[in-house]
Specification:
Layout lengths: L6 E4 L3 E4 L2 H8 L2 E4 L19 E3 L5 E4 L8 E4 L4 E26 L2 E5 L3 E24 L7 E2 L2 E4 L3 E5 L4 E8 L6 E13 L9 E14 L6 E7 L7 E6 L5 E6 L1
Antiparallel strand pairs: 1-2, 2-9, 3-11, 4-7, 5-6, 6-10, 7-8, 7-9, 7-11, 12-13, 13-16, 14-15, 14-17, 17-18
């Protein structure tokens, strides 16, 4: 049923939503910058580091106005709004008055430009769920170049973490996966590879010529772990996790 609300602009890669409820149903738990508690005129920069967001431009200012209908608090970009993420993300959504376009970046590379959302005088929502991770977004207004945002939310993310060093005992953990789902741990060299067919066809991983290391099963909270003794020959290899159910990819680590 949720798929009827999607604009599938690039098959199996980037899905767009115009209703927050449907975006949240697909994304799961979210973290939100709601701009409440800040006086009008406050510059937003690193206040949302605890949830992994950094607003990078000096002209992003809190406004208190009924135009921000969700909670009367929003941010005026005085142009576009740029947000960097401390960990890779695969979902972003925001309520906004007016119109909006979202560009997703991975490092210096633009990986996706959204459809145009909203219009003059319209108060609505824009959300994207991606199979390719991004670490920066630029949000602009396609009608007058002055973006205004109400609540900005990101998904909890699908993360890969490592404890221990190579060579020696290592534990790999994933967080934010599909509850009771299967996670594939891949290894290889840094690069980029698109899976051509089969399960998760079209998924892009940040590895060159990736190989399957092992499969693990997430618990009911979407977390999984695997411990092993890493041999010296494996040191320096890049690792990445893929949630087989959702086809989301994690950040990469170097063993």
């Amino acid at each position: 049923m949720l798929l009827t609300a999607l604009l599938l602009l690039t098959p199996s890669q980037f899905n767009e939503f115009t209703l927050r409820s449907q975006w949240e149903a697909v994304t799961g738990s979210v973290q939100t910058a709601d701009f409440q508690g800040f006086p009008s005129g406050t510059t937003i920069s690193d206040q949302y580091v605890p949830i992994g967001m950094v607003f990078t431009q000096i002209n992003e200012i809190v406004r208190v106005s009924a135009n921000y209908s969700r909670d009367n608090h929003g941010v005026d970009g005085n142009g576009d709004v740029e947000i960097r993420f401390l960990t890779p993300q695969n979902a972003i959504g925001c309520d906004f008055p007016g119109s909006l376009q979202i560009d997703l970046y991975s490092g210096p590379n633009l990986i996706y430009s959204s459809n145009i959302f909203g219009g003059v005088g319209i108060i609505t929502f824009a959300g994207i769920v991606a199979q390719q991770n991004f670490d920066r977004v630029v949000i602009s207004d396609w009608t007058d170049s002055f973006a205004h945002l109400d609540d900005v939310s990101i998904g909890a993310g699908f993360l890969l973490a490592q404890t221990g060093g190579c060579p020696g005992p290592v534990t790999l953990e994933t967080f934010g996966g599909t509850p009771s789902g299967t996670v594939a741990i891949l290894y290889g060299l840094p690069g980029s590879t698109t899976k051509p067919s089969g399960v998760c066809a079209g998924t892009v991983v940040s590895l060159y010529s990736p190989r399957l290391g092992f499969l693990i099963t997430s618990n009911g909270s979407g977390a999984a772990s695997f411990s092993f003794n890493a041999p010296g020959a494996a040191c320096g290899r890049s690792l990445q996790a893929v949630d087989i159910t959702s086809c989301r990819t994690s950040n990469t680590l170097v063993l």
